[in-house]
Amino acid sequence: MQIKAFTKCSWLAVIIVIVISQASFTNSKVKISSTSNITKTLQKTDSSQWFLYDSLQLQMKGLSKEAYNYALLGYNKLMQSGKLKNNETLTIIDFSLPSTAKRLFVIDMKVGEILFNTLVSHGRNSGKDMANDFSNNNNSFKSSLGFYLTSETYIGKHGLSMRLEGEEKGINDNAISRGIVMHSAEYVNEALIRSQGYIG
Prior knowledge:
Elements: E1 2-3, E2 15-19, H1 32-35, H2 47-55, H3 65-80, E3 89-94, E4 104-108, E5 113-118, E6 146-156, E7 159-166, H4 175-178, E8 181-184, H5 190-196
Parallel strand pairs: 1-8, 2-3
Antiparallel strand pairs: 2-6, 3-4, 4-5, 6-7, 7-8
């Protein structure tokens, strides 16, 4: 995943959630609502977490309530399981939004602020403007959905990069072997949108 900006090393061991809203499930080859192992056993979210949705005006910024609720369910489940070393930061990528939208949200759950809300690209074989085809297979060059924990950072050809560990068997658990990482990319910008109509 290529993002417009990437400067926070403190993201290490936070949760990344890549979701499509309920309305998009029927068009996806991955049915998150029925296959997610993370959200099956946890059906409640903290009311203070929902207060953030309103106070940060996330709906006005384009993040749907369905996507936010889904992210909270998994975030709380992984936090309760003890897998989160840093439980302050929640990152949500909402693939129900087009690539021309700022669909990446990095939220400080403790302080209650948005650290980043920016553009993010998807796998080149997942679609053009809309990501509508997903895979967990090697060499598919498609994005995977579901919940991730961040792993180590390294300096690659795109600068500071961060590996992602998929937490859902059959959905994204091949993330490490597939080399799924987050890194900045100068070409992910408004100029590309103006020139070709999408980022991808």
